[in-house]
C-alpha cells in the first residue's frame, strides 16, 4: 500500500522554505526561489533516507574503529526538466553517490482548446533494474506527467522500489498517481493543496515553478 508523507503537517523549518516559495513578493527573487527548491530537495531526501535498506560497516578513524549503519541502496534520481533541476540538486547533495536520469516532459496544448496532452520527448539515464527509483518534480498537479515519466523509465528496467518527491501536490494529482503507479510507491511531499484550476495549476500552489526558477518561456 502506498504511503504519503506531507512535510508541512510537521513543525519544521521546511515550512519557512515553502512559505517563501509561495510568497508573491519573495518569489520574485529567482535565485532565492531556486535555493528554496534545493533546500526542499535536501529535506525530502533526508526524510526518504530513513526508509532505505541499511547495513553495518566498519569505518577506521585515526584513533580506532567504529561500526556505522550506512544505507546499502544507491538510488537513481530521475528529474523532470526544467523545473526539477534545483530540487534534483538538493537531493543529490545528500545522495551524492546516486545515479541520475533526466526526462523532458511538457504540456502540449490543443489548438483552440483549453485542454492539453503531456508529451515525453527525451530520456537519459542508467539501468533501473532492481534499483530504488526516485521520481522528482516540484509540482504534482494532475499527476499525468509523473505517470508518463514512470512508464517511460520502464524502458531502462524494472525498479525494486519507487519514490515520488514533489514540493507541492494537488489532492487530485496524488489520487491519480496512486491509481497508476505501483501500489507500494511512497510519496514525499512538501504540501498537498486541495484545489486545481481548469488548466491544471494547483491552488493556492505557487505559480509556474519553471518560470519562477529560470524566467518565462515563449
Give your account of this protein's structure:
- The protein has six helices and twelve strands.
- It is globular, with a radius of gyration of 18 Å.
- The longest helix is centred in the N-terminal third of the chain and has 20 residues, at 30-49.
- α1 runs antiparallel to α2 and α2 (30-49) crosses α3 (84-94).
- With 218 residues, it is α/β, with parallel strands linked by helices.
- The protein starts with a strand and ends with a helix.
- The strands form three sheets. Strands 1, 4, 5, 6, 7, 8, 9 and 10 form an eight-stranded mixed beta sheet that branches. A two-stranded antiparallel sheet has the order 2-3.
- The chain has a single domain, classed as Rossmann fold, CATH 3.40.50.2020.
Indicate the topology.
Layout: E1 3-6, H1 14-22, H2 30-49, E2 54-61, E3 64-71, E4 76-81, H3 84-94, E5 99-109, E6 116-124, E7 132-136, E8 139-140, H4 144-153, E9 161-170, H5 171-180, E10 186-193, E11 195-196, E12 202-203, H6 209-214
Parallel strand pairs: 1-10, 4-5, 4-7, 7-9, 8-9, 9-10
Antiparallel strand pairs: 2-3, 5-6, 11-12
Helix pairs in contact: 1-2, 2-3
